[in-house]
Amino acid sequence: MVIRRRHRVLVAGILAGCLLTTGWLGGRQLDTSHASGSPTASSPQVPAIVTSAAVAPPRLSVAGNAFRIDGTPTRLVGQSLIVVLTPAGLTSGGKRIHYPRSVADAKALYRDAGSPRAFFEQVRGWAEGTNVVRLQVSQFGLAPRRVAGDPVCDRPCRKAYLKRVSRAVTGAKEAGLVVILSMQYQRLAGGGHRHRWRLPSKTTNQAWRRLATKYADDRSVAFELYNEPQGKPTTQRWAAWRTTHQHLLTVVRDKAGATRNVVIVDGLAFAQRWDGYRDGWLKDPRLAFAMHAYPNRSQDTPAEWRPRWNPVIRPDGARLMAIYPTAITEWSADSAARYCTTDEDDGVATPDAAADLLRWLRDVQPGVGIFGWSFDISTRQGFTVDDDLTPGTLEGFTCGGRGWGPGRLFQDWAAGRLDAPDERRAG
Fold this sequence. Notes:
The chain is α/β, with parallel strands linked by helices. The chain has helices spanning 5-22, 101-112, 116-126, 155-174, 202-214, 235-255, 268-271, 302-309, 320-323, 350-364, 407-415; strands at residues 60-63, 66-69, 72-73, 77-81, 91-92, 95-96, 132-138, 178-184, 221-224, 263-266, 287-293, 326-331, 369-373. The protein has eleven helices and 13 strands. The chain has an eight-stranded parallel barrel, surrounded by four helices. The chain has a three-stranded antiparallel beta sheet with strand order 1-2-3, with no helix packed on it. A hairpin with a 2-residue loop joins strand 1 (60-63) and strand 2. The longest helix is centred in the middle third of the chain and has 21 residues, at 235-255. It is globular and about 50 Å long.
């Protein structure tokens, strides 16, 4: 019997004492048969999640073009989460900001696990090799001084929000995961796509000074400075990107004193373009690069991916991924998105392009990590499609519909189960 979220809240409360006393967390395999019809012997199952003794938090570092966890070169396998992205009590124009249903679903999933640590142990066990989570956080919930025109989070709001973020970070570390904190300005953070937020602002600087001070030199925590900077990769836009991001580095390293945390930067065009970047524009010994991969008509084959995500950035012809650690910090195949394509459209269908991207990275750039977006939005992205964390599939995928998702595909990539690429699209 599936226990729905509204009932599981009660169950979680009744059993909380038992969970904490015995260290037990479900201990069952999650049923994945719902996503693709009847179960088969080959259907991958989610490992049983059992709460274990506390482990030392893993430490993230970089060397050459590799991420390292506890000193060992490691491919990052992770999930991007919105569960602590939305500050409670945030207002705009004197009115409280209301968030979409997906936020309530994410909070219920988090709450029903019983504790932050228990939730992150579920995340860690959902896909093989998971070693990191990316927590998106709101700059408006962290900045201590309001900038005119920004949403308002008063002192009690900011205090409660930082506490909520801190509990999640602690829970993830206790579950044995590296944490990436990614600064957000978009809708779920309380903002939007206004011109003032398309690149880091004074609000971003204030938010990082507060957050980086708290986690200064905690090597289990990395900082993704600004989620999805906007603008086409023109010379002028790269100059503005460089100025604002160098200032953020100064805030994090010099003002907050966070000298040992890994820092990650996103490219332009919503983190989908690195072409035009030149090596040396940002100088930092612990720097890594991120991109977001949402296949669409303009980027659905390796012919588009290579020049945009792995461009030449040095006069000697060296490419980005050969020099710096890189990761796809958001990847998905979203049937509800405006950039969705089908076989009837020009280009490669979204499900095929999403799978091809994983194969391309596996074969050409095997060290590049990938984060699914978003594990805790079951109502849209379909990484999970129900309360049992059943992975979504792309069988029967159509644009404009819901109920499909790339969860099973992500699990196959993480476990090394992807089939060979289609030669017509291999590039």
